[in-house]
Amino acid sequence: MERPQTIAPPEGKLGVLLPGMGAVATAFIAGVYAVRRDLGRPIGSLTQMGTIRLGQRTENRTPALKDFAPFAAMDQLVFGGWDIFSDNAYQASLRSGVLRKDLLDQLKPELEAIQPMSAVFDRHYVKKLDGPNVKKGRNWMELAEQLIDDMERFKRENDCSRLVMIWCGSTEIFLKPTAVHQTIEKFEQGLAARDPAISPSMVYAYAALRAGIPYANGAPNLSVDIPALMELAAQNNVPVVGKDFKTGQTLMKTILAPGLKARMIGIRGWFSTNILGNRDGEVLDDPESFKTKEESKLSVLEHILQPEVYPELYDDLYHKVRINYYPPRGDNKEGWDNIDIFGWLGYPMQIKIDFLCRDSILAAPLVLDIGLCLDLAARSGWHGVQEWMSFFFKSPMHAADLYPEHDLFIQLMKLKNTLRFLMGEECITHLGNEYYD
Ligand SMILES: NC(=O)c1ccc[n+]([C@@H]2O[C@H](COP(=O)([O-])OP(=O)(O)OC[C@H]3O[C@@H](n4cnc5c(N)ncnc54)[C@H](O)[C@@H]3O)[C@@H](O)[C@H]2O)c1
Predict the structure, then answer these.
(1) What would the pLDDT profile of 325-337 be if each residue is shown by its tens digit?
(2) What angle do CA 415, 419, 422 make, to 5 degrees?
(3) Residue 376 C-alpha to ligand 1 middle, in angstroms?
(4) Whose alpha carbon is nearest atom 17 of ligand 1?
(5) Which domains does the chain have, with CATH numbers?
(6) pLDDT band at 234, cuts 50/70/90?
(7) Half-sphere exposure of residue 262, counting CA atoms within 13 Å on the CB side?
(8) 3 state DSSP class of 348
(9) pLDDT tens sequence across 371-411
(10) How many beta carbons lie within 10 A of that of residue 59, not counting itself?
C-alpha cells in the first residue's frame, strides 16, 4: 500500500447502496437521519466518535478522527438499495422492530422516499425467504447489467459524485470457491451460463466492480472473496473489504480472548449459544446458511489464540457455536458464553457471559464507518482488499499468503496507524521516548 500523492477531497454527495434493506440497513439509514436532525448520537461509530493520538504523548495532539482524515460527512450521504420485498425504508424499519416507532415517525418522509430497487435473487441460495420484488433475466450476466443500469440511474437522479456498495443482504448458503471463481474469464463465462456456483451476492459484487464502485460484504457468504473478483478489483482499481460485520458474541470474543492470551491463561472450552428472532435468525435456521455463519464465527479463536505457538494453553480447546431461532426475542438477541479456563498449575475456572444485545444497534454504526473508510480508500487510489479495515469484520478478508488478524486491539492499532500513514503522520508503536536517541 503506497501513500498517495494526493487524496481527492470528499466533494459532493456519496451514494451508499445497500443490497438487502432489512434490519441492519434500515437501522443504519434511519440512524443517520436521526443524527442529522439531532435526535440521537452516532454511538458505536469510530469515524464519528473516535479520536487519534498524533506524535509524542507530550504533544497533546488528539484530534477527532473525522477532523483528521478527509472522510465524507454524514450530511453528504444519500441512500439506496435493493430488496426482494418492496417495503419502503419506513415500512421495513417498522417491520424489523429495531428502532422505536416514535423515532421512525419523525423521520417518516425521508424513509418513505427510499424504495428498494428490484433484487437479483434465487431461493436456492437463501432457502427460508421468497419475495416478489425480483429482477428477471436469462442469466446472471443480464442481471448484472441491470444492476449496473440501476447504479448509473441512482447516481444521476441523486446527483452523487461517488458511490459505495455494502452487502446487507441475508446470509447465503455455504459455497466453496471452485474453478468458475478462479479467473475473470471463467467467472464471466459462468455468469453467461448461470452457473449454480455463482450466488446473487457475487453478481452484485461483480456489477459494483465492473462499474468501479467500492464493495464491502457485511455477511459471511463469499461474495467478493474469490480470486476472479480480486482480479477485477485490481484491474479496475477498486477497493473491497469483508466479511461479516463484527457484532454481538464475536465482538465479545475478540475483546476477551486477546486479554486471556495476553496473561497466558489457558482455555479448555468455549461454548457459545444464541437465541434471536429476527429475519436474520430465521434465515440462519436453515442449516446451509448456518454453515456459512458457523465457519465465520469459528475461525476467530484459532487465529487469536495461536494454538500452534501455545499448544499447552490452547491446543485442546473445544469450541462450539450455536444459533437458535426464537421469534419472541425479535432483533434483541441473547448470547450466552461459557468459557472454561485454567490458571497457575492448571487450576480450572469458569467465565459466564450473558450478553443481552441488540444486533442491528451494534451493526448500524459499522455500516457507516465501512462506507466512509471505503470511500476514503477509493479517493486515496487504494485498491484490492483493505486489510486495515479488519476491525469491522468477523472474518476479515486478507491477502492469499497471510492469515487474518482477529484481535480487536491489533486491528484498531492497524486502522489508526494506516490513517496516520495516509495523512503523513508518524505511526505509533508505543515504544517509549527513552528508547529513542
Ligand atoms: N445484525 C448483525 O449484527 C449482523 C452481524 C453480522 C452480519 N450480519 C449479516 O448482515 C446481513 C443483514 O442482517 P439483517 O439483520 O439486516 O437481516 P434481515 O433479514 O433483516 O435483512 C436482510 C435483507 O436482505 C434481503 N435480501 C436477501 N437476499 C437478497 C438479495 N439477493 N438481494 C437483495 N436483498 C436480499 C432480505 O429480503 C432482507 O430484507 C445478514 O446476512 C446478517 O447475517 C448481521
Answers:
(1) 999 988 888 999 9
(2) 135
(3) 25
(4) 280
(5) 13-245+360-422 (3.40.50.720), 249-356 (3.30.360.10)
(6) very high
(7) 10
(8) strand
(9) 999 999 999 999 999 999 999 999 999 988 888 999 999 99
(10) 9
The CA radius of gyration of the chain, in Å to the nearest whole number, is 22
CA torsion sign for 186, 126, 21, 83 is: positive
Which atom of ligand 1 lies closest to the CA of 279?
Answer: 19
Instruction: Could you list the beta-strand ranges (E) of 63-125.
Output: 77-83, 117-118
Q: Is the pLDDT of residue 88 over 70?
A: yes
Q: Which three cell numbers stand for residue 187?
A: 467467472
User: Could you tell me the distance, in angstroms and rounded to a whole number, from the CA of residue 223 to the centre of ligand 1?
Assistant: 13
Rounded Cα gap, residues 146 and 88, in angstroms? 20
Residue 437 pLDDT class (50, 70, 90 cuts): very low
What type of residue sits at position 176? K
Q: Which atom of ligand 1 is nearest to the CA of 81?
A: 33
Q: How far is CA 298 from the centre of its chain?
A: 17
| Cα 411 to Cα 95, 242, 261, distances in angstroms | 34, 14, 16
Tell the residue number behind the cell numbers 420484488, with chain if given.
Answer: 133
Q: pTM for this structure? A: 0.96
DSSP sequence for 221-252: S-TT-SHHHHHHHHHTT-EEEESSB--HHHHH
Pocket of ligand 1 from Cβ distances under 6 Å: 19-25, 82-85, 96, 119-121, 126, 129, 131, 168-171, 200, 218-219, 244-245, 247-248, 278-280, 283, 359-360, 362-363
SS3 396: coil
CA of 17 to the centre of ligand 1 (A): 14
Q: Report, in this order, helix, strand and coil percent for the chain, each rounded to 5.
A: 45, 20, 40
Hey, is 194 helix, strand or coil? Answer: coil
Q: How many CB atoms lie within 10 A of CB 89?
A: 28
Q: At which residue does the C-alpha cell 494453553 appear?
A: 313
CA distance 46 to 414: 14
Q: Distances from the Cα of 427 to the Cαs of 1, 133, 265, 310, 416, in angstroms?
A: 15, 48, 30, 29, 8
